Amino acid sequence: MRAQSSPDSFGTILSRLAKRLGLESRLFELRLQRQWYEIVGDPIAAHTWPDQIRFKKLYLLVRNSVWLQQLTFFKPALLAKINDQTGVELVTDIIFRVAELPPRHQPTGLATDSGGQHAISEAALIEASAHAAAVRDPDLKDRLTQLMAASFSRPSRR
What we know:
By secondary structure, the chain is of the alpha+beta class. It has 7 helices and 3 strands; from the N terminus they run ααααββαβαα. The longest helix has 20 residues, at about 65-85.
């Protein structure tokens, strides 16, 4: 009689299937895009975007040549951070490309009241939107509006 073995978890089964179908790199690429701000931090993430992974090379879009030059010095640290996410070396090199970054909808965490943050009131959002109306860049306008609204919603410390 065959011994009973414990069933594999759903995650383990999916992981094996992804590896067998050659989707491991693509799944990591999507996870990297979703968690980019947490992996590299706000200063770098605001000026970069992980475009794709091909043949173990991460193609990283960079806002301008100044940031591209600066990031070349951080390449080993970026590689280490990225590969720490999987525990496996899925990326062996980073190729920087100057390009327009795609619009991102990165949650700022300002509208939540978890973790010591205060909820943004509707009135604060309307007031902040009026102040940011002159800003032409839609991404900058949205971030500025959220930041001002969060500031307006905080209780004053007097």
